[in-house]
Amino acid sequence: MTSSWRKLLVLALAAALLVGALGISSARSADQPAVERNAATEPQVTGCVPKGARFRESGWRGRRWVALTFDGGPTSNYTSKVLAQLRKAKVHVTFFIRGQYIRGHTALLRKELAEGHELANHSYSHPHFPGSYDISRTTKLIRKATGYTPCLFRAPYGSVDSALLGRVRHQHMLTIGWDVDSWDSLYDNVSKTTIYNRVVGGVRPGSIILMHDGEGPHQGTLQALGPILRNFKRRHFKVVPVSQLLGLRQRTSD
User: Fold this and answer.
1) Is 181 a catalytic residue?
2) Residue 212 is a catalytic residue
3) Topology given in CATH for the domain delimited by 45-252
4) Would you kindly state where each structural domain of the chain is located, as residue ranges?
5) Which pLDDT tens digit goes with each residue over 147-181?
6) DSSP per residue over the chain, as a string?
């Protein structure tokens, strides 16, 4: 083989190796999830900004948006199963977190946030009319576990008075009630049919809907959730977190 042919062969082999290496690099890049590639540049949601009336039970009635809310978690029995159904339906909700259940479940809180849901405060030990420390303790635990600072609070049992509303607002949060109660915590073993009928029969534009992923038997909640979400889709209701329903601004890491 002549010297010229040897040079051409070496150049051809080098070019082939370069193309192959570029192809492997591109394939690896395409296989990586977008969230990994963009994690350094995308702002992270770190909370919301309270505004308006300090107590709200619903949003604006002029738009077919509704907010699903889940109280009392996170729990091993229910939270992951609720998340799976929300993921399947591609909707986002608000989880009102009970502080005493955060320990041992921080991964669930981070998962809720990572999947686009909102975290809110439901007190630490779930007393009637919780004091300032009980409320602030939960906010600090949520922030420590996730980096997210809630601007929404829900009173245990829905019990509110002017003093509690003042304590909550002093901690830069709004108190959120509801206008549709699923009854899924009213008594043990509430049926799927009762929960479904309560929600789909009571919902209207701007509704805030009370459900639970906390302690107690909530099999009926898990069984009713999918049919409820399908009903909402047929009726053109858009499910959004409470802060979005109320038009609150999100805080980000930027």
Assistant:
1) no
2) yes
3) TIM Barrel (3.20.20)
4) 3-38, 45-252
5) 999 999 999 999 999 999 999 999 999 999 999 99
6) --HHHHHHHHHHHHHHHHHHHHHHHHHHHHHS-HHHHHTTTSPPEEEEE--S-SEESB--TTSSEEEEEEES---TTTHHHHHHHHHHHT---EEEE-GGG-TT-HHHHHHHHHTT-EEEE--SS--SS--HHHHHHHHHHHHHHHS-B--EE--GGG---HHHHHHHHHTT-EEE--SEE--TTTSTT--HHHHHHHHHHH--TTBEEEEE-SSS--HHHHHHHHHHHHHHHHTTPEE--HHHHTTPEEEE--
